[in-house]
Specification:
332 residues, 23% strand, 14 strands, alpha/beta
């Protein structure tokens, strides 16, 4: 009988699962241990070299986002107006600047409204860090909104990227950032790829400013998609995902790192249901013949897609979403 000690809570009892690589149909068999105490699902035998599982030109996080947009409106009177208009679009203030959004709107910025709730970010010059940022798609969008103090790190990048004289993406590990402090740290679907969960969270805590906030967006083991699909759940993503937390294990890991979860949000959409249904049919997510990810409309009827949306909403309503945003801050 296999024995294993959970790397989050040290419990030794749980359930074993065997999963194959399904996104690109590489196959293989990878053992996962689901802890009976904290609920964390973890890969127990990590391949020595994971780089082949992030194939260049295929893995979505590292697809080329194109050249960095240079702002022609960022200086002088036009720049002053643009910054206040953008701030009103993103933060809803100052009140008088809302008038600018009527005569010179930026509707592409409106999806940011509410994004910085529960964080101290209220200005464009506050320091923001994106850990595991890939090609920097999210940071580029913030740069286009005229945020000016942006940093990204990702050790799998081929080279550094300069967004502006004050905003950079570094092709380096998180430990590269010593002596820095950030008001807001983002980890968007990156923590699950990291082998030292508690050590990483400790480093995040050291990088946060006194009132700084870190938001960690990750797939979670719940009674929703994980129980529905098992090892064919797309978010298992063997062997790239080393840890899949439950809400309980995420709170425990944060506590061990000297941090606390003070807010959560069920952020899942219906894509994982679509992709997991493909896996049930033994269809990989990436279409190697067409060199692209599969078109959902080509595989599912409108009625089926609507059913997946319904399952998404039902799981979220029961607090059983397969994807959750965790907001963390340092303990007092």
């Amino acid at each position: 009988m296999k024995t294993y000690e959970c790397r989050i809570c040290s419990h030794r009892e749980g359930t074993w699962h065997e999963a194959g690589e399904r996104m690109f149909n590489f196959g293989g068999s990878y053992p996962y241990f689901e802890c009976a105490q904290c609920g964390c699902l973890q890969l127990t035998e990590v391949p020595t070299d994971l780089s082949p599982f992030y194939p260049a030109g295929k893995y979505y996080s590292f697809s080329s986002p194109g050249p960095v947009h240079q702002h022609s409106e960022a200086t002088g009177l036009r720049g002053w107006i643009a910054r206040h208009r953008n701030r009103a679009e993103v933060f809803g203030k100052p009140f008088w600047a809302r008038l600018l959004t009527k005569v010179w709107p930026r509707p592409d910025l409106r999806p940011w409204r509410g994004y910085f709730d529960h964080t101290p970010i209220q200005r464009f010059d506050q320091p923001i860090l994106d850990i595991g940022c890939g090609g920097g798609a999210l940071l580029r969008r913030l740069h286009d909104a005229l945020f000016t103090n942006l940093t990204g790190v990702d050790p799998f990048l081929a080279a550094d990227i300069a967004l502006s004289p004050t905003s950079h993406i570094h092709a380096k590990p998180l430990e590269f950032l010593t002596g820095r402090s950030f008001d807001f740290i983002m980890m968007n679907d990156s923590l699950e790829h990291m082998p030292d969960q508690i050590g990483t969270l400790k480093t995040v805590g050291r990088l946060l400013s006194a009132d700084g906030v870190c938001v960690i967006k990750i797939p979670v083991v719940s009674d929703g998609p994980w129980k529905r699909y098992g090892v064919r759940w797309v978010e298992l993503d063997a062997p790239r995902h080393l840890f899949l937390h439950s809400k309980r294990s995420m709170r425990l890991a944060a506590e061990k790192a000297g941090m606390e979860v003070f807010h959560t949000w069920n952020s899942g959409d219906y894509f994982p249901y679509i992709a997991s249904e493909l896996y049930l049919k033994d269809i990989p997510l990436y279409d190697d013949e067409k060199k692209c990810y599969r078109n959902r409309e080509a595989h599912f009827t409108p009625a089926e897609l609507e059913q997946f949306r319904k399952w998404t909403n039902e799981d979220a309503a029961r607090d059983e979403s397969g994807h959750v945003d965790f907001y963390l801050r340092r303990k007092a």
